[in-house]
């Protein structure tokens, strides 16, 4: 490490340039990773933040909530196996709403849930609603950008029903649309077209049953209930429209960034190593061990990688603070750790090419005695 630090101190301009390149590459990797994670969260946050870990859907629905239809029969059977509080129905309906005093139309997704169950929305502003409340909703805070506030009247264009906004929740999106929570009473009225607060003997089916249970019990439900399949939360998220295609494209972009960054850094250090071939040969002729020279090369890469990554993290967090709220961006500790380890790993992997070049340097060639 002494040789690595001494050389970096002597050639400040050269290694500063390399560090700038590594900084820009690592910043790009972190920023794109943050955008990918932000887009994913904006797409599935309503399902990701649910306390349920399994979902019962129709077996022929291909895991998609909106294609599934379940009745009270399946709900009763599921509750008999997991308990009353650990199974709750969920209905999903995408629609468009307008608001009094706001000219903007907003695409939203209705979530009809039991307001006493585990899917009850956590209100961060305003008031919640109960199962007996008629004509009131709790909406995602992103709808504030459309001019909607507490007390606003929003109209569902599909059913023609009007709802009063009682409160706001945070981070509740489905398929890139804000979620509007209604109770099952208004869901029945919306689907039956009986008018607000209407009733009918015929029950409107739900789309899915949210479950909080173990894998063994989930398997039992699948085997005992006909035409029902129990899927995990990850499977449910992957089946949200557009999620897999969007994330696969971004993942491919991130992978290519890692590969390109590793290739670029490997080329830079390889060129520098070639320029120093004679110096390495002289050191070998003096009896310097190959392990010491290899650690010198790898040490330089490690120092520059860690330093550039630290600065790029600070730049990324600084830019995130200046980004508009409409731009989805999210970097959690786990994502930062994984991205950092991969970046440093790719850098060190690229340095092995330089190490191999150093190992091939012949001491006699380096000191000009090739003809001896």
- pLDDT averaged residue by residue: 84
Oligomer: single chain
Shape: elongated
Count helical runs.
Answer: 11
- Radius of gyration, whole Å: 29 Å
DSSP strand tally: 11
Label the structural class: alpha+beta
Strand order of the largest sheet: 2-3-9-5-7-6
Which series of helices and strands comes N to C? HHEHEEEEEEEEHEHEHHHHHH
How many angstroms separate the termini? 33 Å
What can you see in these coordinates?
This protein is α+β, with helices and mostly antiparallel strands and 372 residues long. Helix content is 51%, strand content 18%. It contains eleven helices and eleven strands. A six-stranded mixed barrel has the order 2-3-9-5-7-6. The chain is elongated and about 95 Å long. It starts with a helix and ends in a 6-residue tail after the last helix. About 2% of the residues have low confidence.
